[in-house]
Amino acid sequence: MIKNYLKVAWRNLVRNKAFSAINILGLSLGLTCSMLIILWIKDERSVDGFHKNGKQLYQVYERWISNGKPDASYPTQGLLADELKKVIPEIEYTAATDYAAAPGTQSTFEANNKVNKNSGKFAGLDFFRMFSYKLLQGNAASLLNAPNSIAISRNMANIFFGSPANAIGKTIHFENKEDLQVTGVFENIPANSSQQFDFIRSWIDYVKQNNWVHNWGNTSPETFVQLRTDANPAAVQAKIKDFLYCYADKDPAVTMELALQPFPEKYLHSNFSNGKVDGGRIEYVKLFTLVAIFIMLIACINFMNLATARASKRAKEVGLRKVVGASRSSLVGQFIGEAMLLTLLSVIIAITATTLLLPAFNGLAGKHLVLPVSQPAFWMASVSLLVVTGLAAGSYPAFFLSSLKPVRVLKGTLKFSHAATFFRQGMVVFQFALSIILIVGMIVIYRQMNFIQNKNLGYDRENLIYIPIEGELINKYEVFKEEANQMPSIVDISKMRNSPTIIEHHTNSISWPGKDPNSNVSFADGVVGYDFVKTMKLQLKDGRDFSKDYADSASYILNETAVDKIGYTNPVGKQVTWGNHPGTIIGVIKDFHFSSLHDPIDPLIVRLDEKWPWGTILVRTRAGKAKDAIAGLQNICKKLNPKFPFTYQFSNLELANLYKSEQVMSKLSDYFASLAILISCLGLFGLATFVAAQRTKEIGVRKVLGASVTNIVTMFSGNFLELVGMAILVAFPVAWWAMNNWLQNFAYKIHIEWWMFAIAGIVTIIIALLTVSYQSIKAALSNPVKSLRTE
Length: 791
Known about the structure:
The protein is α+β, with helices and mostly antiparallel strands. Helices cover 49% and strands 18% of the residues.
């Protein structure tokens, strides 16, 4: 019996090649998309899941309420980690971390006549006790407990010393100014870690090199804690809530609190709203989970529609089988089996396609995904997917065909109930509603990304190059600037502690005459060189730039937001004190964006320090002369700083890195939306085939009575446009709601406009007309004599 069913299934598949190809193609596309999305989702959810102490690991974040408005951020005080460990008994280990170089740049190392750049950070001595980064050499308990100690990765150990074992105890030269002793070697950081680094330096050195950490009003490092296994996180959170007031005076105007976030959750939940963790990459995980489910539903609906469209050709087969004694269950089993066969072929094709597409998908998504074919769980999941998809796709056609009455079908009077017709049409409406939502999403995401890339940030980001201050450039910056300014391709040069898009350091140690003692405002702060405003092409609202023509060592420049916070009406010439350093405001610059457009512009205060020992040189080149400028700058750096490889970064590229995740999501959305539309078109084609088969005699009668081909094509297409119209009515409100929520993640965003929906509707209508045109024209051109012939 089973052998006979298989023969029948295979013959039907081979006999109806076009039908089988469309069905297999639709299912294969759906399965391939779903597999890629599932692999991506699995990888996203696995990030930071390998830490053995993950359940006890937490990140501390600071929450404050100022003027009734709550807010929060991850930067904390430099001494917070050590103090938490001393005071809170439920906390077993703590570690603070911060960049070892300006964000976006790398540190230069030298050993054994080899020079290389690597990324890393400073970290507290418990760092390797808390996080499960595999140590190849060294003891986690004593790895970072001495000054000038450093732990390096296997990759660094191989580059400089040949092997991890050879690295231990050796000296490595850091930034041409410090000798560090290698006290440990760790395995290269896995791709599924949110923390990526090549080395870890002792926190003792960080505190020694940054005196500002002793001021509890300054924030920059991130703080991590590991609770004891018997600790209650809620109780610990209650204990640390007002912890800062043990070291800073309580301000009636500003409520400051500390809170805990489980570390394994941070990667997916890193946004704040109203002072609490709210969303992040988890929104994309949820979105693509729904996309995967919907794409599979669309593919299964296509199967149902196409199988039902073939029902009229198999109705007599069903009738004859019933007449000779076939039970309904045996017929259901046969048709489910045929669906399983098609699904099996689709799964095989999908696995092959996924394997072939993974390298390109990894390049697009920035991942290292692999199809886990060696894991039994993968094949169990594939079999489950085969069974579920086969049942979902084949159940409706199987039960529908097996329910046909043999007397009616053998008399050639196969008709379908209104409920069956409504169900099929509803599925097409659902398909196209989803497609319209995805098209609107594509348009909104594209427009927002274009808005970000082209928005006036308040400075000219074109022809702006960043060069890290390192090695001899620290002491020879003046010589570098003098020689570079003589190049015709260079317009202006200045320097900055960080870079214009990464000013993360904040302080609340800003005061001024008449300041409300109950007011506490956090300022972003920058340290820059002469001609900063000129080089950046910032817009001066009032006053002037830092200049050698003046004694500006005790002068400050503020942005508009800072002036508004202070409350000065004519700020130039008035006094401001930063910590213990009173100074005069010499200029006010118009607000410019120095962080992601996800965030509003903070108050900014900038001071002059040409001797600041690290950061970024800002070089403004002439338009069209970037290549000449880079070549000249490279020659100067080789002469002045021979031990350090010349590196640079274009301002536009650094800015693009801030929105890397959004760019990836935008591209993935485009591809998946396009595939969903393609699969939906296959479903519409299936329904068009079904309707054409059902209305053959009607079309023949209309032609006999004088209807033209145009009349019939218009009538035929009009029915489908009604379905598309209903899909539009369903999709537009949902699309607006979904994309409006997505845009809330940006402090600066576009407005959703009517024309975005109009484009989505028009594109969908055109696609629908093109899809049904083949069947409608074919039906209109058919010979009425054949369609009206009686049995």
